[in-house]
């Protein structure tokens, strides 16, 4: 089962924090299954055995119910039984205006567009993920364990003919204690105090941190940071992360995976042609991590570019094309979003119009229709906004929505493969499913081809080579299978280093103090990109890890990874060394570099530390029985004290043996 | 809230034992020593009998519940016999010690009589036996829940505490009666004590049918209390003296 959390902290004026502020010894409550409205009344007002531990069907997991529970003192915790499909009207626990405080629109820049005055991007957003709950909230899969919980409830806690159930009652205890409190500033201050004064410092929270993945068509010297002479770069960007209300559940099929898969397929399609017929400008593929939490990855990359700590700087950036949510196109047109405020400048407007024209010309040859939304509409929440905050870079965001998101389950646990129509016939084996080309795969392949050709054209490549750039549907199908269904498949495993293991959902952020697991999405994208855009070399393992001494290899330009290769029938692998220009760059918010924990400029999200996350069910006895036990015990103790004192004081009288003369003891 | 159950059960199980210890044993260092040594002897008997049971259990088929139940019954009976053997051994040790104590004391007699040693030894056996029965159950009772999710009775903690109380008192009385029987060479007394011990332990195997185990055990406890009272020098005459002197104290005050 998965809980909410870790407690994630933020610093803002209203000090919102999202977490489950549970007690350290667990929260116990009498089980009640919430299936009807009458149950809700029972829990909140009429039930005689508060506090209750609510086990609710997914249909009841709405903002109104959760807020009522939050305000009630009769709820000890909530366990939500997941369902595979979300409510038809949609559900999004994210805010209705994602990242509104760290985007580009402020009262100084496009005030009429700030705070979603112009377009509400996520109208179904109910902000549940940003509420502060004082009790644990777990999610349960609908499996055997959940059946055990239901059975316990049915055996002991059901109401008979309207009368209340009798003790002993079935109860559940949830442990999900979070060490940090209040907000990031407080938590980091306490951590710093611990580090300065305590012999055994205990960290309370950690900043959210992971890595961005980037690569370039023409390799750049990564040891020399700052402005690169005569380099003009077109950036193709996508985000890497997703989230939901619950920890470690972030399928994010439409929200993130659609864009990752498209950009990966575009990179694969573009590389051979770009090597054969290099375009005028360099092309950068970038995947930003941590965008859900106020643009951690993109803000860090822009900060590094501004301060000459990145391989290029903002003067090198020519234009930017970002892939937003594009999975729910359903054969209709794609939309190219741009920023109306920067386009008021004629130079920028001309460059953006040029980019639009390039893309449209490519689209017409592909039978894809593309449109621009109204000229006064804001740019949707995207990593591009962080670039615009610093400089009016010409750029576009590609998406399947004209105004508000088409995604009805944005950043929720229902944004699954099924929602994206990635479904497979039931009689296929996992290996067959891996290769099966779904309709979604075909649709995304078209977009990938569009993106690849547009980028090539934008980078100054010649038109006669455009038709050679085509994305491969089988690759897209395999990527979709790997990111959405099972990452532990033969293709992914062959691209990873030999010490990697398979895991389930992989889209959440990884925190610094956990050793960067080899199965996070960052790593997958890194190695897949290396496989697609790199070359196989003949280096052995020690040379691969240390190529300084090998002639012709350069650690400044390239990165070398030792990957396991395909697993043969009898389980052996044939590892080899891949040379690519795929690099990782740190995605930690600049606020933590500047130790400005209350920053308004940059993301200040942290995650609370926690120790155990578990739950157990048992029976609880009535308080009357417990008090009676205590009463009887105290009575027994007092009576025995009195009687013993009495007897021992009269012992000489009672036990006449002690009155015998001393020398006849025996 | 189940700190209430913890304290309630602890007081029920150890209240009288605690009272007895405070008022009769704690003041006299010699009695404390005999008490601790008695507890140690009981522990030895437990170690030996549990070793035998453990080996038998490991040597047999763990899946077969009938065999395991049979082994448990065998283990209980064997343990009772071993405890009584160790009680006899302790009696012999104390007799030897008594001569030594008499030799080193200023008066020519031992500072403690055999009857007092019998009582202290019995109480030592009783308290350590109670501790080993009850401590694990007490620590479990601190948690938020109670017994019953697999269908067992929810009165488990209380009945365990009551049983422990009975066993503690029984060991005390048996100690008195047993030593008296050994002193007077009345071997039938020893046989009866062993049989009663076997009976009480056997009754505990009837649990969770608490109506079948607790009332008979308490009946045996009362019976043993009366027997021990008479065996240690008490008599109805003394009881009547007690009440008349009380009345005369009341009259004179």
Automatic annotation (TrEMBL), chain A:
It is found in: Membrane. One of its GO terms (biological process) is Notch signaling pathway. One of its GO terms (cellular component) is plasma membrane. InterPro entries: Ncstrn_small, Nicastrin. Residues 23-180 form the Nicastrin small lobe domain. Keywords: Glycoprotein, Membrane, Notch signaling pathway, Signal, Transmembrane, Transmembrane helix. It is a single-pass type I membrane protein. CDD domains: M28_Nicastrin (cd03881). Residues 1-26 form the signal peptide. The chain crosses the membrane at residues 627-647. Belongs to the nicastrin family. This is Nicastrin. It comes from Pygocentrus nattereri. The lineage of its organism: Eukaryota, Metazoa, Chordata, Craniata, Vertebrata. The gene is NCSTN.
TrEMBL record, chain B:
Potential subunit of the gamma-secretase complex, an endoprotease complex that catalyzes the intramembrane cleavage of integral proteins such as Notch receptors. The keyword Transmembrane helix applies. GO terms for biological process: Notch signaling pathway; protein processing. The chain crosses the membrane at residues 6-25, 32-56, 71-90, 117-135, 155-179, 186-206, 218-243. Component of the gamma-secretase complex. Belongs to the APH-1 family. The lineage of its organism: Eukaryota, Metazoa, Chordata, Craniata, Vertebrata. GO terms for cellular component: gamma-secretase complex. This is Gamma-secretase subunit APH-1. It is found in: Membrane.
